[in-house]
Amino acid sequence: MHYEQCSVIEQLSPNKSFWIFVLPTYLLLLSVASLALVLVFANTVSTRSYNFLEKTLIAISIFIAIFGIACFFAPVYKYGIVMIFIALFTIVTAAARVKWLNVLAVIAYVIALLYLFDPFNGNAYFNFASNRLPNGGVDLETAGILHATWKMYNETYGPAIGQNNTVVPSYCTNYYDYFMIDPAMRDYDRYDNPIVKTFGYCSRGWITALLIFEGILLILTLVAFALVTMALILRLKEDHGYDPIELEVRGTGTAALGDLGY
Length: 262
Hints:
This protein has helices at 14-45, 52-69, 77-96, 99-117, 145-154, 171-176, 204-239, 254-259, and strands at residues 160-161, 167-168. The chain is an all-alpha fold. The protein has one domain.
């Protein structure tokens, strides 16, 4: 017979519910609403049609926002917030066609790429790590979006089981204080896989999908950075161009030609 039992490890409290359900939903709705407003702005602000480069930037920004939303459902939600902001700012830049906005967009992309890739990973001081250790130090395993997600992926077969059958939380389960399967509630002999110890946002399936989304997100961000830089170069060339020369031809014998029937 099967009995429903309550477990302290799998108990869902109001505080946990906020981080698991309320915060991701709020960020999702805010992102969708902001994206809709920016697209309405882009549709109404321009008095002429967009060129191919501007259309491509707007399309890529929409996909960046879509794939960035996936980060809200993981401890790496900070990266998602940064990419949503970058996507919205890129759309505004493409629609406004203002040079100084384009300059700011290039700078914003440089900072975003440093935050996403973190080329200073391993340095105790110059790094962009998104997590801190309990002692206040920097968690170098979370320096960059792929490092942080890979840390969760490596721990999906955890959390480890300590002495007296207690659960040792991993990075993901420790962040949410949830998604840990209570080993005392499992029937490993007949039904349950003893290797799988997490579920939900900390499951291997979701984190694998998140890694795929993040890979696409990084590629789109690099392409968008190249296009924004190209747009800035083209605008600078336009500013340093020469005004077109208008030629005015005046006839000297109009009356005489008219008399001849021309």
